[in-house]
Amino acid sequence: MLTAAALIAIADYLIAAGLPTWPLFARHNTSTILQRIALAVATLAVLTHAAILLSLHRGALDLHFFSALSLVGCVVSAMTLVVNIWRPVAALGGIVFPLSALLLGVDIFLAPTTTPEPLEWQIKLHVTVALLAFSVLSIAAALAILLAVQERALRHRQLGPWLRALPPLTLTETLLFRLIGAGFALLTLTLLTGILFVDNLFGQHLVHKTVLSIIAWLVFGALLYGRWRHGWRGRSAVNLTLIGMGVLLLAFFGTKLVLELILHRMP
User: Fold this and answer.
1) What backbone torsions phi and psi does residue 119 show, to the nearest 5 degrees?
2) I need a surface site. Which of 148, 161, 186, 220 has the fewest CB within 10 A?
């Protein structure tokens, strides 16, 4: 049952990612209709993905490596839908949805079976805020990649039809910094809840994760300050966004990979 549902969700993710690319190869503009269909199919994928996670982990919050990755994929996809409703960027789905399909497939078909560990409500709150922060900043990182590609194409006058899948450069940049601002606020809240609710950093092997999270927080904070004070944009904004996201990825999953899959400890 779960296998069939996973295959349906994976297919829906891939269809949703592929539909908006059709206008890139067509002479007539059908992008609006196809984007709406893609969002509807992606919504079905996200709902199916969420239902699978609830059934597979019995409604509990499973923080094992592959389960956590699948959960992040589901949340990032859901937030991508929200972003597209607020400010349509069809190309975002082309990055996010295939990755979510891959993470779901690995969790269902390749990952070992795991049992969620009981968590107190304070830790659940901390993890939920951290998940939201990571998801928002992940979308910002994907948008930064699109911004870099868009700027390079304009700089070299490579004005191909694929640019129709992207909003104007200024709107992309504005959306990028709004997402970074929201993600920075959530990351700040993540660090504060961690200080309040996590009792033993050394005993729970959280020192590296905490230090890396603080470094990422400083990078995103510096980017927002530079934008406000010095008007940073373009390549500087893209590079700092990707650096901050890279550090955050190490904080959230790099340490978890080492502890859980190499040292066989649950962080």
Assistant:
1) -130, 140
2) 161
Q: Which residues contact 194 (CB under 8 A, 6 or more apart)?
A: 126, 130, 206, 210, 213
SS (H, E, C) the chain: CHHHHHHHHHHHHHHHHHHHHHHHCCCCCCHHHHHHHHHHHHHHHHHHHHHHHHHHCCCCCCCCHHHHHHHHHHHHHHHHHHHHHHCCCHHHHHHHHHHHHHHHHHHHHCCCCCCCCCCCHHHHHHHHHHHHHHHHHHHHHHHHHHHHHHHHHHHCCCCCHHHHHCCCHHHHHHHHHHHHHHHHHHHHHHHHHHHHHCCCCCCCCCHHHHHHHHHHHHHHHHHHHHHHHHCCCHHHHHHHHHHHHHHHHHHHHHHHHHHHHHCCCCC
Give the Cα separation of 38 and 32 in Å (integer): 10
Instruction: Read off the pLDDT band of 114 (50, 70, 90).
Output: confident
The string of pLDDT tens digits covering residues 193-244 is 888 877 655 445 567 888 899 999 999 999 999 999 888 888 889 999 999 9
Which residue from 99, 97, 95, 96 is spatially nearest to 107, judged by alpha carbons? 99
Residues in the chain: 267
Q: Burial, 9: exposed, middle or buried (Cβ in 10 Å; 0-12, 13-18, 19+)? A: buried
Q: Which amino acid is at 15?
A: I
What is the Cα–Cα distance from 45 to 8, expressed in whole angstroms? 8
The b-or-e profile of 27-46 (16+ CB within 10 A means b, else e) is: eeeebeebbeebbebbebbb
